[in-house]
Amino acid sequence: MRDTPLVGRRRILAFLACAASAAAMPAAHATAQTGHNPSQSLRLEWTVGKGRRGRPEINGYVLNDYGRSATGVQLLIEHLDAADKATGRTIGYVAGSVPGYGRAYFAIPIPPGAANHRVSILSFDWETGAGA
User: Which of 20, 38, 97, 124 registers the highest number of CB atoms within 10 A of its CB?
Assistant: First the structure.
């Protein structure tokens, strides 16, 4: 499926705005954080936890404050050292869609050892069609 020019621009603008806001935000040192994407339509609530077999993961919800479903939601997890400098990154996906005025759960495995993490929405599309 090819992106229309408008969808492509939305993805690029969402990514650039997320990157700019992430760079301007001070790194939080709590294990639970809440973040916003630039349009304020999708929000993140997440925490660092243990997944299967005790492996570390980022888990939480993408919350949708808009009346249309968000699809193809891609998350960027930056791994930070004690000085809050990025030492690596993980890209994860939200399975399925995030329904309008709803939420979707995610759990993304991460490598051990980072002092902190920064999670942001990398890209998404608004669902189109009769059911949107």
Answer: 124
Assigned token pair, 5: 């020019």
Task: Supply the CATH number for residue 93's domain.
Answer: 2.60.40
Average pLDDT of the residues in 99-103:
96
How many Cα atoms sit within 13 Å of 27 on the Cβ side?
Answer: 16
Q: How many domains does the chain have?
A: 1
Helix (H, G, I), strand (E, B) or coil at 97: coil
DSSP 110: -
pTM of the model: 0.68
The set of residues, in sequence order, having a beta carbon less than 8 Å from that of 93 and lying 6+ positions away, is 72, 73, 74, 75, 106
Question: What is the per-residue pLDDT across 32-53, written as a single tens digit (0 to 9) for each?
Answer: 455 544 457 999 999 999 998 9
36: containing domain:
5-126
Render 13-78 in DSSP notation, one character per residue: HHHHHHHHHHHHSPPP-SSEEEEE-TTSSEEEEEEEEE-GGG-EEEEEEEEE-SSS-EEEEEEEEE
